[in-house]
Amino acid sequence: MQILDHLTLLSPLDWVAASAILLAYLLIGWRIEYPGTKHPSVTVLMSQNRRDWMKVFVTREPRIFDSQILASLRQGTSFFASTCLLAVGGVLALAGNTEPLRGVAAEVTEMAVPVLIFQLKLALVAIFLTNAFLKFVWANRVFGYCAVLMAAVPNDPADPEAFPRAAQAAELNIRAAINFNRGLRAMYFALAALAWLLGAFALIVATVVVVWVVWSREFASLPRSILLKNPT
User: Fold this and answer.
1) Which of 103, 127, 138, 214 is the most buried (most CB within 10 A)?
2) 22, 130 in Cβ contact below 8 A?
3) What ranges in 110-161 are assigned the alpha helix state H?
């Protein structure tokens, strides 16, 4: 009953803001991954380039360059997975000792805020960070599957299995990249969720800002303009 009493301290705007950031995360992810043919996202454009990469890979000799690229991609996923673990640890430590947050809250509002409310708000941050960690770990593993399949591609381009296996490797590469991008988006939204500590309105503003940043990177960035240019 005490927990329910504390939860009543969350205003309707708090619940709206928390629901909005979760919904925004899901919707912007869907929009990026399924944008339609008229306005493709950077993620979709890069997917086609990954397929082209695997086609060239079949005839490239030696293939050391390709293995170095894949190793770099896996290194990136490992770095962000480790970063997420550290961030989750920091959030859990802060949830266990909310005294610093009490001082900040005292400067913002005169109302005493129970520890449970701080922990609830930090839980939202932890959820996004945990989701990001799981996405990065899975992306790293799928990149590993891709590496094995690339190694299984015959050296002879005339071999009937060469291009089909390369195509399979491309699809694995794309799935790994999609999960990597999902992890990055979750980290963006984790940063936005921190704003909830300052109030519901701050969370709404932070959500809008993050949605704009993520959308602009995928649909209104210079890299996207470069990818849309015809190389011929």
Assistant:
1) 214
2) no
3) 115-151
DSSP 195: G
For the chain, the domain total comes to 1
Determine the pLDDT at residue 36: 83
Most distant CA atoms of the chain, gap in Å: 75
Please name the amino acid found at residue 87: A
The answer as to whether 171 is a domain residue is yes
Tokens read off for 77? 């996923």
* 158 in any annotated domain: yes
- At 185, the amino acid letter reads R
In the block, tokens 């491309």 appear at 170
Neighbour-count burial for 197-228, b at 16+ CB within 10 Å, e otherwise? bbbbebbbebbeebbeebeebbeeeeebeebe
Give the pLDDT band (50/70/90) at residue 110: very low
134 in a structural domain: yes
The structure tokens listed for 13 are 């705007």
State the Cα–Cα distance between residues 190 and 205, nearest whole angstrom.
14
- Tokens 């770095």 correspond to what residue? 79
pTM of the model as a whole: 0.88
